[in-house]
């Protein structure tokens, strides 16, 4: 059994329940990514599809195999959530990749990445912008947080980056789409592996909020415009709404 197969088996074991078809495919993709030559992967997981559980299983398995794993998120709150389900420290992207310039109170440059063979996992990537300079009094690197993050990872030795998020969530302020989850933009940065979790896990199937949100997302993805009173959204079967 090769290293990729060992990782895949570990992901399934640490998930703790039977994987959906999408989760199974995601585990295969991540195992191939970690053991291959690529350095940038994008994971898009909609609400209720078990992305959090899948990532926790991946992180636990990588820890077992002594693969250095760095957890990052665009905000402090997102980092705290990531840390809670991964059971290991997580940091904001800004805190981890930037260092304050000497003599510059509000100037930060890209710090050194001294790691080797490390996997960086960034959650809530839909919030990562590419023009953050415009909305901050401080100067951070090039002003493009996403590209600075990728440059930081590539400055290490054989390091890799997985960006994970939900493209159905709101994009960064001032943007129409989330750059970190946009296939065209990420391909321009060198990403060649993309995985999507679209199947709602069994435990979430009776959630009315999730059922209606999923119906709306599918209409948006298919670019279908329907008057609100004709959407066919339903509250009756669901006691929580």
Quick description:
The protein is of the alpha/beta class. The chain has helices spanning 3-15, 21-35, 51-64, 76-86, 93-97, 145-154, 183-188, 208-221; strands at residues 40-45, 69-73, 90-92, 98-100, 107-110, 119-122, 139-140, 160-165, 193-197. The protein has two domains: 3-202, Rossmann fold; 206-241, no CATH class.
Write the layout of secondary structure elements.
Elements: H1 3-15, H2 21-35, E1 40-45, H3 51-64, E2 69-73, H4 76-86, E3 90-92, H5 93-97, E4 98-100, E5 107-110, E6 119-122, E7 139-140, H6 145-154, E8 160-165, H7 183-188, E9 193-197, H8 208-221
Parallel strand pairs: 1-8, 1-9, 2-3, 2-6, 5-7, 6-8
Antiparallel strand pairs: 4-5
Per CATH, the class of the largest domain reads Alpha Beta
**Count of discrete structural domains:** 2
Query: Roughly how many Å apart are the termini?
Result: 49 Å
Question: What's the CATH architecture name of the largest domain?
Answer: 3-Layer(aba) Sandwich
The CATH homologous superfamily of the largest domain corresponds to: P-loop containing nucleotide triphosphate hydrolases
DSSP strand count: 9
Q: How confident is the prediction overall: mean pLDDT?
A: 86
Q: Note the beta-strand portion.
A: 15-25%
The helix/strand class is: alpha/beta
User: Could you say what the CATH topology of the largest domain is called?
Assistant: Rossmann fold
């Amino acid at each position: 059994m090769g290293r990729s197969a060992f990782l895949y088996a570990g992901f399934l074991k640490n998930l703790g329940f039977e994987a959906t078809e999408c989760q199974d495919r995601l585990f295969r993709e991540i195992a191939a990514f970690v053991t291959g030559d690529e350095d940038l992967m994008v994971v898009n997981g909609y609400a209720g599809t078990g992305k959090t559980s899948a990532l926790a299983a991946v992180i636990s398995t990588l820890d077992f195999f002594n693969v250095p794993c760095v957890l990052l998120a665009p905000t402090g709150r997102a980092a705290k959530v990531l840390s809670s389900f991964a059971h290991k420290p997580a940091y904001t992207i800004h805190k981890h990749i930037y260092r304050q310039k000497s003599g510059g109170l509000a100037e930060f440059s890209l710090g050194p990445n001294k790691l080797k063979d490390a996997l960086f996992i960034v959650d809530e990537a839909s919030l990562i912008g590419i023009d953050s300079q415009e909305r901050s009094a401080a100067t951070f690197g090039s002003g493009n947080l996403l590209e600075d993050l990728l440059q930081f990872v590539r400055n290490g030795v054989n390091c890799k980056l997985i960006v994970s998020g939900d493209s159905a969530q709101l994009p960064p302020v001032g943007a129409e789409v989330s750059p970190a989850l946009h296939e065209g933009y990420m391909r321009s940065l060198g990403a060649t592996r993309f995985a999507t979790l679209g199947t709602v896990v069994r435990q979430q199937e009776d959630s009315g909020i999730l059922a209606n949100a999923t119906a709306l997302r599918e209409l948006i993805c298919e670019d279908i415009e329907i008057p609100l009173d004709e959407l066919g959204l339903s509250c009756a079967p669901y006691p929580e709404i």
